[in-house]
Amino acid sequence: MNSEKPCCSHSSKMDRSSAKEPSLHIAIIGSGSAAFAAAIKAAEQGARVSIIEENNVIGGCCVNVGCVPSKIFIRAAQLAQQQRRNPFTGLENHSPKLNRALLARQQQARVDELRLAKYENILQNNPKIKLVKGTATFKNKSTLTIRRQVKGDLSESELIADRILIATGSTPTIPNIKGLADTPYWTSTEALFAEQLPRHLVVIGSSVVALELAQAYRRLGSEITILARHTLLFREDPLLGEKLQQVFEIEGIKVITQSQASQVDYSDNTFEIKTNSGTIQSDQLLISTGRHANTEKLNLSAVNVDSDSQGKIVVNSKMETSCKNIYAAGDCSTMPQFVYVAAAAGSRAGANMTGGETKLDLNTMPAVIFTDPQIATVGLNEAQAKEQGIETTSRVLDLENVPRALANFDTQGFIKLVVNQKSNQLIGAQIIAHDGGEIIQTAALAIHNKMTVEEISNQLFPYLTMVEGLKLCAQTFTKDVKELSCCAG
User: Fold this and answer.
1) What DSSP assignment string belongs to 421-447?
2) pTM above 0.90, yes or no
C-alpha cells in the first residue's frame, strides 16, 4: 500500500495551492469495476486519485459476490449435470459425488486471487491512486465528508477534489413481504457461498441472477421452485422466456408464473411461503428480485444531483450528472447493470474528468445470461424496433439446423435475427443456445458495422462452429437452409 497519507484534511480550510504537486485531484466514491477503471484512466492522464471505500474489502460486487463466484458456481453445476445426464450412448451416466463446502472454498480462493491481482495490486503499485477508508457524503460539489469508526470512536474528516465520481454500486432489493424480514432468507451472496445444499430451494424472482442460481442449485441436486411475478425474462423477446421455461421444466425445475408471495413464515427449519398460487414449504428461500442503487447515504440533495425513481443517478453518455464536475458510473447510475458497461463507463468518466470528451455508445451492447443454454441478446427486438418506428422483418432458426448443435447432440434453442425492412441491415439478435454468449459478439460487430443479411450470408464462417448459425439464419431470409449442403456455402 502506498505509504503517503490519504488526501484528506481534518479541516474544510485545506489550501490546495500548498500541495507540492498541484495536479488535478479526482475523488472516487466506491472501489468496484467502474471506480478502478476511472482511477486508472485518470492516473494515466496525470491526476491524483483518492478512492473512498466504506467496506473492509475492496473490489465491489463483481469480483467478490457477483460475476466471478457465480460463474465458478455455474460451471461446477454444469459439470455435475454432464455426469448425471449426457447425450452420448457410449458414456455412462452416474450421480456426481458432491462436496458443496469444498466447492465454496475453491470459489472463495479464486475470488481472493482475482481481487488481489485486479484491485489490491493496483493500489500497491500505482502511487497516484490512494485508498481512503470511510463513508463519504457530499458537503458541497467539491467537498466530501468522510466518516469512519476508529477504535470505536467516530472520526470525521473532509476531502476536497476538483472532480468527483460516484461509483457506489448496488445492493439486492428485498420486497416488502409480510414476515420476510424475520426469516433467515438468502440473497445471492448467501446462495453463492453456502456450504450446504438445501433439499428444496424456493426462488422468489425471475431476474438474471435468480435464473442462473436456480438452475445451478437444481444441477447440484436441490429441488427448485421459481415464483415469477410475470413470466421468465418478460422484458425480453417472449420466445426466449418460453424456451428457457421449457428447458427448466425438462430439468425438473418448477416454474410458477404470474405468482406473488404475500407472507413468509419460518419455524422448525422450514419456510412457509403464501402466494396467490397456494402455499409452498421449503427448507431455504432465495430472494432475487433485482438490485437498487447505493445512493441513499450520499446526501445528493446537497449538490442537486438528479436521480430517478429507483435512486439511480441520471447520467448522460459522458457520465456527467446534473451537477458540474460530478460524474457517476456503474450500477448506481442509469447505465445498464453489467460489469463491462460499468468498466467502460468508468474509463470514459476518468478520461472526461481529466479533460476528455469521450462517450459511451450502448447501441450494440451485448448481454448474456449464463443459464444453460445461454441467453444472448444485442440490439433491438421487434417490439423495441416498433417503439422507434422501425419496420422489421425477422427469422428464427432452430438449432436443429446448425451442424455443430447436431454434432453436440444438443439442439435446444434458436437464433433469431431482426432486420430493418427498409435497409435490410441487421439491427438485433436474440439467441438461446449452448455457448450463446460466444456467438453474440459476432452479431454485435455486424450491427455496429451496419451489415445487411446478404453481407453476413456471404461471409466465411468456419464449419462446425456454433457461430455458423448466424450465417445460416441470415441465409433464411432468402433461402431454405434445409436444402443447402453441409457447409452453408
Assistant:
1) TTT-BEEEEEEEETTHHHHHHHHHHHH
2) yes
